[in-house]
Amino acid sequence: MINILMIEDDTEFAELLSEYLAQYDIKVTNFEDPYLGLSAGVKKYDLLILDLTLPGMDGLEVCKEVVEKYDIPIIISSARSDINDKVEGFALGADDYLPKPYDPKEMYARITSLLRRYSKSTSSEITAPQSDFEIKGDTIYFKGEALTLTPAEFEVLSLLVKHQGITQSREQIINTSGAMSIDSQGKSLDVIISKIRTKLGDNKRIQAVRGVGYKLV
Q1: Cys-Cys crosslink for 52: which of 26, 66, 78, 128, Cβ 3.0 to 4.6 Å?
Q2: How far apart are CA 188 and CA 185, in angstroms?
Q3: 141-179 in b/e burial notation, b at 16+ Cβ within 10 A?
């Protein structure tokens, strides 16, 4: 059984999602109060579904605290559609962002996809080499040298560095970058990746995963 922690103040919505996921042997434990959710033993759950508009504590603050203390995949589930919320959520370490309203089928698909990727990444974590990337403020260092990046390049590479070894979908990367052009975003992403590779001096560090997106190795 998959155990999911949900922090969502809309109890009716949480119950509907919980009932749908139960048919796939997924148990959802929801807390309306973010403080109660954080004290519920986060590490015993397989995944966190997190709303942003919560009583007493913003969901982005919850996301930051969870990422700092626990190793658990996070899906933000929110009616807040501001691109800045998406960008900040991904920057803080969220793995996915699903705007409300949505069909429970899509949430199920995202849960299973994320857990598959997460399982693969954690299984190889022990043998993974130490990263030669470091993020300090608004600068990314590669092998000790500061990279000169545009805002869009920084946002894209920052996401890949924070999820090194895990494939990031094109949608996730584009949603993370508020600096990318609104028009032709898919094409812009490929151009940005190409420029980052050039600045790294190593075309093999960022791999294209056909039909999905990119990952940093």
Answers
A1: 78
A2: 5
A3: ebeeeebebeebbbbbbbbbbbbbbbbbbbebbbbbbbe
From 88, 9, 12, 81, select the one nearest 49 (Cα to Cα).
9
pLDDT per position as a tens digit, 120-157: 554 444 333 457 888 888 899 999 999 999 988 998 99
pLDDT in tens, 15-57: 999 999 998 889 999 999 999 999 989 989 999 999 999 999 9
Cα distance between residue 196 and residue 191, in whole Å: 9
C-beta of residue 151 within 8 angstroms of C-beta of residue 138: no
Structure tokens of 78? 């929110």
CB 87 within 8 A of CB 155: yes
Query: pTM for this one?
Result: 0.58
CB contact burial 38-55 (16+ within 10 A = b; e otherwise): beeebeebbbbbbbbebe
Omega before 151 cis (within 30°)? no
